[in-house]
Design goal:
By secondary structure, this protein is of the alpha+beta class. The protein is about 20% helix and about 40% strand. GO terms for molecular function: DNA binding.
């Protein structure tokens, strides 16, 4: 979210009643507001959190990783990742709190998905108090080369 400072001429009822309404020099009242940029629906990964994702790891589908992070990799490299154990450090931006966190993206050779593990639990589940049933979304920011994360539906 973007924080902006706006100045307004509007006063509270108390300020309006206590000031002289004939005075042409009304003071400006600064007010800080948060603006979430209006954009197309960018969420490439939308998940309703399960118990496994709260206590263990956040699964990211191989197709989404291939289409985003590995889009410049050759078909041979992508084929090799299916049968190898892979681990890489990535950045994840929490759009709700405007913070950036480092995470480890990991893939086991027997699984077809990538996963965020320990860093997911510490940086997101505990810090944001995520619970089973919340809907979260992620997308890959191509300009910043990082995932962007947000809680889309916080109802429990």
């Amino acid at each position: 979210m973007i924080k902006s400072l706006f100045y307004t001429f509007l006063q509270t009822k108390h300020q309006e009643e206590s000031n002289n309404s004939r005075d042409p020099n009304y003071p400006l009242f600064p007010q800080e507001i948060e603006i979430r940029p209006i954009a197309y629906f960018p969420w490439e990964i939308i998940k309703t959190l399960t118990t496994d994702e709260i206590i263990s790891k956040f699964q990211l589908p191989m197709e989404k990783i291939r289409d985003t992070m590995l889009r410049h990799a050759s078909e041979e490299d992508i084929y090799r990742t299916k049968f190898m154990s892979c681990e890489t450090n990535i950045l994840v931006k929490d759009l709700d709190t405007n913070t950036i966190h480092q995470g480890k993206l990991w893939k086991h050779p027997c699984e077809n998905n990538f996963a965020l593990r320990e860093s997911w639990i510490e940086e997101f589940v505990k810090r944001r108090r995520l619970v089973v049933g919340m809907v979260v979304g992620m997308y890959w920011d191509f300009e910043a080369c990082m995932f962007c994360f947000s809680v889309l539906d916080g109802r429990q």
